[in-house]
Design goal:
It is a single chain. The chain is elongated and about 85 Å long. Strands 1-2-3-4-5-6-7-8 form an 8-stranded parallel β-barrel, surrounded by 7 helices. The chain is 43% helix and 12% strand. α8 packs parallel to α9 and α15 crosses α16. With 412 residues, the protein is an alpha/beta fold.
């Protein structure tokens, strides 16, 4: 198993308060923007998880965001004595930079696009003009703030010729702490990532590297794993992977996967806070934790009869990963059209306290399966099953009042 060296400590750069607020999900849930109090609660959860790097919007985005950044920095510093990095996501613009520093940020995530598309349609500057601008702005900033943390990224790095990136990075390398490699539109594959990281590490040995992968192709998390294996230190992520379009990797998904290869992650982060953090976001957005999120109860939910039988006997048969360490402390066996007699027997006997044999359970299950077309919004699976059980004349145990009825399995 690969081990992290002191120079290869992995840092999550949480961008929930920047890229996360650009997620279409905030519009789908009619949230649009996190309130200050919601941001404070989320930041508390992230700090409890062990995250120490936070990226914010540049204050020029709006007065409310600028005020929130100041409030959040004060809130975070009151929560912990650990060193924290508050990073403003800024254009290469000296006025933007000074306004960011006035809010209390102690680091800057600077960016500039030099891809052919950016030169023509966005920045509308030639490569040479962009190089001069970046060198002037970053050099001036470094001179004025010798100890300030500076990261610089060439936006849309994987659609920009590598030689053009080298021209840009050669100019700013003497002034920065970290160089980024954002896959802004999610075109990269893991093999591309490994190759680019190798080239950057060779050319810029004294700079740390940061990755920012979008999930347009569903490859963001795979690209993170490839980047870290190749030597990247900083990984941009957000709660649930909220970000523009299809998002970026989720904080908890990154930690879950990296901990498989790097056990030191468990000492750096409080992994048992992963699932509570995901549930916290669900409560704010008023929706469920995404079914694609690895650290979720969904990832411990079984509906097929074969799976349910096996899990009732030994969870490891269909649960290969230990999510208990990440805060998921139960699983779900969902009663439904695919359930077999094993779950029906368990449910009627252990949850509903029926006096039932296995042979009776098989008979009930046969009728249940023949009537699953009745299941829907108007009749839940449990209602249908109880109707069948009572029609078969099954009786219940009479339990003393003091006997608890709660069960470990959530069958709702």
């Amino acid at each position: 198993m690969a081990a992290l060296t002191p120079t290869h400590r992995i840092e999550i750069v949480d961008t929930t308060f920047r890229d996360g607020q650009q997620s279409p999900l905030l519009f789908d849930t009619e949230k649009y923007r996190f309130t200050l109090e919601e941001k404070k609660v989320l930041m508390t959860g992230l700090i409890e998880l062990g995250v120490t790097h936070f990226e914010f919007f540049s204050p020029v985005v709006g007065v409310a965001e600028a005020q929130d950044v100041q409030e959040l920095i004060a809130h975070a510093r009151a929560l912990t004595q650990k060193p924290l990095m508050f990073l403003a996501h800024c254009r290469c613009n000296l006025d933007d930079i000074e306004r960011a520093l006035e809010t209390g940020c102690n680091g800057l995530n600077l960016y500039l696009g030099v891809s052919p598309l950016a030169q023509q349609h966005n920045a509308q500057k030639s490569l040479e003009e962009s190089v001069r601008l970046a060198q002037e702005v970053i050099g001036t900033t470094r001179k004025a703030h010798p100890d300030l943390y500076l990261r610089f990224s060439a936006e849309d790095a994987f659609r920009t010729p590598l030689e053009d990136i080298f021209c840009l990075y050669d100019a700013v390398y003497p002034y920065v702490n970290t160089l980024g490699m954002p896959d802004t539109v999610g075109v990269a594959e893991p093999e591309d990532v490994s190759a680019v990281v190798a080239r950057l590490r060779q050319r810029y040995p004294n700079a740390a590297l940061e990755c920012h992968f979008h999930n347009d192709r569903g490859l963001a998390l795979a690209n993170v794993i490839a980047a870290v294996r190749a030597g990247v230190r900083y990984v941009d992520a957000s709660i649930w992977g909220l970000a523009e379009r299809s998002g970026i990797p989720s904080v908890t998904g990154v930690l879950f996967n990296l901990s498989k290869r790097y056990p030191e992650i468990a000492r750096q982060y409080n992994l048992n806070q992963c699932y509570p953090l995901n549930v916290l976001m669900a409560s704010i957005l008023g929706t469920l934790v995404p079914y694609t999120e690895p650290v979720s109860l969904t990832n411990r939910t079984h509906t097929a009869g074969v799976h349910q039988k096996a899990v009732l006997n030994e969870k490891k048969v269909y649960e290969a990963h230990n999510l208990h360490d990440f805060g998921v402390d139960k699983n779900q066996l969902l009663l439904g059209p695919l359930s077999g007699w094993n779950l029906i027997y368990y449910y009627l006997k252990e949850v509903e306290n029926f006096i039932i044999s296995k042979e009776q359970a098989k008979q009930v299950a046969q009728e249940f399966k023949s009537r699953t077309a009745e299941i829907g919004r108007r009749k839940k699976p449990e209602e249908l099953l109880l109707e069948i059980a009572e029609a078969h004349g099954l009786l219940r145990h009479i339990l003393p009042e003091e006997v608890p009825t709660a069960r470990l399995e959530n069958l709702d």
